[in-house]
């Protein structure tokens, strides 16, 4: 049985300001650093054998307490970088009408529509597939941690569990919610929330088992 823990990076200064991040690289906020320590508490009793992050500092900084505790290197993989939001990065939607309209176009067709200079969900899925093949090959029977991003983690969960895209688009993950996906056997997914471990994915503020 292989177990993959999927964390989202801690809150950033841009999260706190309501700015679109994508592949921009803001620092963690004080709350985000606290969330990185809470992540360690959730996994410190597990026999982790590898830690993967994106190449963005919010992902790396979130993984640091876990890496230091286990004495494991942080393996940075650019394939895990968040989706690029092109011209919208750094902008606050509710303050800019043009940006809000562009965002709505993307939300209505996230699979194929590209914001100027950006990616869509299919682009991200294509770059994630080789990474997923690698970890499933290298870490059979092991437990690993991936610290990624909202869209990247949605897609990874969907690929691992063979979810249809209409489900993938609804998967929620706040900065402090940790998923666990079990593979190489009966595929199951769990999430850590409010001090509990619950089976299923988080949709609409509640646990859903598919």
Structural overview:
With 210 residues, this protein is of the alpha/beta class. Helices cover 38% and strands 21% of the residues. It has helices spanning 13-17, 30-43, 57-70, 97-108, 121-138, 150-161, 165-168, and strands spanning 2-8, 48-53, 74-76, 143-148, 178-183, 188-193, 196-199, 201-203, 206-208. The strands form two sheets. The protein has a seven-stranded mixed β-sheet with strand order 3-2-4-1-5-6-7, with helices on both faces. A two-stranded antiparallel sheet has the order 8-9. Strand 8 and strand 9 (206-208) form a beta hairpin. Helix 2 packs parallel to helix 3 and helix 5 (121-138) packs across helix 6 (150-161). The radius of gyration is 16 Å and the shape is globular. The two termini are 20 Å apart.
Based on the model shown, name its key terms.
globular, 38% helix, two-stranded antiparallel ribbon, seven-stranded mixed β-sheet, alpha/beta, single chain, 210 residues
Structural category? alpha/beta
The number of helical elements comes to 7
Helix content: 25-40%
The radius of gyration is 16 Å
Give the number of DSSP strands: 9
Q: Strands of the biggest beta sheet: in what spatial order? A: 3-2-4-1-5-6-7
| Average pLDDT for all residues | 96
Shape: globular
Short description:
The protein has helices at residues 13-17, 30-43, 57-70, 97-108, 121-138, 150-161, 165-168; strands spanning 2-8, 48-53, 74-76, 143-148, 178-183, 188-193, 196-199, 201-203, 206-208.
